[in-house]
Amino acid sequence: MTNAVKTPEQIAKMRTAGRLAAEVLEMIGEYVVPGVTTEELDRRCHDYIVNVQEAIPACLGYRGFPKSICTSVNEVICHGIPSESKVLKKGDIINIDVTVIKDGWYGDTSKMYFVGKPAAHAQRLVKVTQECLYKAIEIVRPGTTLGDIGHVIQQHAEKNYYSVVKDFCGHGIGDVFHEDPQILHYGKPGTGQVLEEGMTFTIEPMINAGKPGSRVLRDGWTAVTVDRRLSAQWEHTMAVTSDGVEILTARKEESF
Ligand code: MF3
Ligand code: CO
Ligand code: CO
């Protein structure tokens, strides 16, 4: 299947995986404080996924990725590697991206956390990026096109004088981590694949305060902004329903 359409039974398994991934993000929040290392956040998430949820951290060993979650701080766009040497400090913004496998099916989600009280401009970038995700989710239903999704994200980001990262995208997801289609976070209305009931995919906009360009560090993973200004990202896994969308990775604090 190339268009990511799943059966209700398959979506039920993704609902379970998605809820677990969301619960990891809920669990880790209280530990995101000044002085903690991203290594400690990784260890707590790993142990929770493996021992409490009896699930598998999908990132660990994926294409050689060495840790169980991605921790992307400040100018890091995505795929930051947790490390004992990365100590969070007051004013940082951090994305934690969690993907779990349960019973062979994937749930992939990320959110931004504040360390202490970041500068107003940083808080605003985080808020507008979340709005980009939510505005995209609002239009997901059968008949919407992938270009429509990209367009609403790009419009909202650029209206706020931010830029959309073009080098990374959302993706189909199911019993494979990354499958077709690619979900671009920019685009033209009415173009691209038409959404159908049963499709499952992520939307995960990465929005930069400055220029859209990215560069991968020598560790082979960490993607940073070329201008070293801030970047933010939020991600959900979802399924297209007969008349809208079900967010498979919704957290308690969210109402869809
Ligand atoms: N969770 C990321 C995504 O949203 C993928 C991380 S791959 C890793 O698609 F290897 F960096 F963990
Ligand atoms: Co993803
Ligand atoms: Co992810």
Topology:
Elements: H1 8-28, H2 38-52, E1 56-57, E2 70-73, E3 76-78, E4 93-102, E5 105-114, H3 120-138, H4 146-159, E6 163-164, E7 170-172, E8 179-183, E9 200-203, E10 206-208, E11 214-216, E12 223-225, E13 231-233, E14 236-240, E15 245-247
Antiparallel strand pairs: 1-4, 2-4, 3-12, 4-5, 6-10, 7-8, 9-14, 10-13, 11-12, 14-15
Helix pairs in contact: 1-2, 3-4
Structure description:
The protein is an alpha+beta fold and 256 residues long. Helix content is 27%, strand content 25%. The chain is built from four helices and 15 strands. It has helices at 8-28, 38-52, 120-138, 146-159, and strands spanning 56-57, 70-73, 76-78, 93-102, 105-114, 163-164, 170-172, 179-183, 200-203, 206-208, 214-216, 223-225, 231-233, 236-240, 245-247. Strands 1, 2, 4 and 5 form a four-stranded antiparallel β-sheet that branches. A three-stranded antiparallel β-sheet has the order 3-12-11, with no helix packed on it. A hairpin with a 4-residue loop joins β14 (236-240) and β15 (245-247). α1 crosses α2 and α3 packs antiparallel against α4 (146-159). The two termini are 28 Å apart. The relative contact order is 0.19. The mean pLDDT is 98. It binds 2-amino-4-trifluoromethylsulfanyl-butyric acid (MF3) and cobalt (II) ion (CO) (2 copies). One cobalt (II) ion binds next to β4 and β5.
Would you identify the regions where 5 or more consecutive residues have pLDDT less than 50?
Answer: none
Which of globular, elongated, flat, extended, rod-shaped describes the shape? globular
What is the assembly state of the chains in this entry? single chain
Quick one: biggest sheet?
A: 4 strands, antiparallel
Bound molecules: 2-amino-4-trifluoromethylsulfanyl-butyric acid, cobalt (II) ion
